[in-house]
Amino acid sequence: MAKKSPPFHALLFGLLVIFCGTYCDGRIACEPGWNYFKEKCYHSYQFHLYTYYEARTVCIALGGTLAKINNLEEDLWLKGYTEGKFHLWLGANDIEQAGVWKWEDGSPITYSNWYTNQPDNLARHPDIAVCLHFYNEWNAKWNDAPCSQRKGFICEKNIILKI
């Protein structure tokens, strides 16, 4: 009788366990260069300047999305993680309807940390799509800018494995 090979998912799990033994703290796994916070992995690209659309494409190609901030705790963590870095795209915009801000997944912004009198590009450029970014000169408060500007960005994705 021929010997059966283990199912593919068993082999994949074994590889993840080996990977996790090397790259995680026993509870979570993020790929090398990514940082863990609250069930997500994050990576900032401060020296790679892309338009919002290009940054979104890069994050998707890496298996994630531009970062979404759901609450103050996540906002403060990302502020600390990106301290001293340049302007960084986050995953929200008003492309669909001017003045109506949504995250990339289509959900409305329920928590916000806009700088005083922001967003304001709607008033200055009502015909230009604007997107959300951290503005470090304003203590990492949020600002809107034309999506065609080149900035760094933050990607987020799900953890690889939780054991």
Count the E strands.
8
Strand content: 25-35%
Number of domains: 1
Which architecture would the CATH scheme give at its second level? Roll
Helix content: 10-25%
CATH-defined fold name: Mannose-Binding Protein A, Chain A
List unreliable stretches of 5+ residues: 5-24
Please state the average pLDDT score: 81
Derived structural class: alpha+beta
Distance between the termini: 36 Å
Q: Give the radius of gyration.
A: 19 Å
- Sheet with most strands: 8 strands, mixed
The coarse silhouette is globular
- The arrangement of helices and strands along the chain is HEEHEHEEHEEE
Q: What is the CATH class designation?
A: Alpha Beta
Account of the 3D structure:
By secondary structure, the protein is α+β, with helices and mostly antiparallel strands. It has a single domain, classed as Roll (Mannose-Binding Protein A, Chain A), CATH 3.10.100. Helices cover 25% and strands 27% of the residues. The protein is built from 4 helices and 8 strands. It has helices at 8-23, 52-61, 72-81, 121-124; strands at 35-37, 40-50, 65-66, 88-93, 102-103, 130-135, 141-146, 151-158. Strands 1, 2, 3, 4, 5, 6, 7 and 8 form an 8-stranded mixed β-sheet that branches. The longest helix is centred in the N-terminal third of the chain and has 16 residues, at 8-23. It starts with 7 loop residues before the first helix and ends in a 5-residue tail after the last strand. The model is unreliable at 5-24 (pLDDT under 50).
